[in-house]
Known about the structure:
By secondary structure, this protein is mainly α. Helix content is 69%, strand content 0%. The longest helix has 35 residues, at 129-163. It has a single domain, classed as Up-down Bundle (Four Helix Bundle (Hemerythrin (Met), subunit A)), CATH 1.20.120. The protein contains 7 helices and no strands. One of its GO terms (cellular component) is plasma membrane.
Amino acid sequence: MENRAVYGPTTEAAPGAGRGGLAACFTLGRLSRPQRVLKGLQLLLSLLAFICEEVVFECTLCGGLYFFEFVSCSAFLLSLLLLIVYCTPLYDRVDAGKVKSSDFYITLGTGCVFLLASIIFVSTHTGTSPEIAAIVFGFMASLMFLFDFGLMLYEKRQESQLRKPENNPRAGTLTEPLNG
């Protein structure tokens, strides 16, 4: 009998076998499907808002533009950083609870500040097409951050509901003496 016939059906390929190079180090499995979509949209929309804002050539009230520029660039870089941490082996080297907690607060903060920057930019823009596009992408990106925060909040509540002990109506009867 050949060794292949004996060991073939029970031998499994190593995890990641068949994938080489960078693909072996990159996985989206740590994020649920809705989170993957939201994180991708956050990344894309914040980048588009930043690019559209960079195309603006002149402004009259530049404070709103500069604040929007800073926030959109920061939002892009923070969402890229979080996606890198979730999708690479770096996630295994840090505490998963701390990553999720950081993601929770970064997403909330970024969504709120991006919304504020978009509102300020709306009140200070001059009405050019790149400004309008940047504002639209800014509002859409801030909504994606806030939706992601809402999803994480919902998942946290579901998780705490599962950990909560059941209310047992017979608990009072169990503390009574048996000889009574």
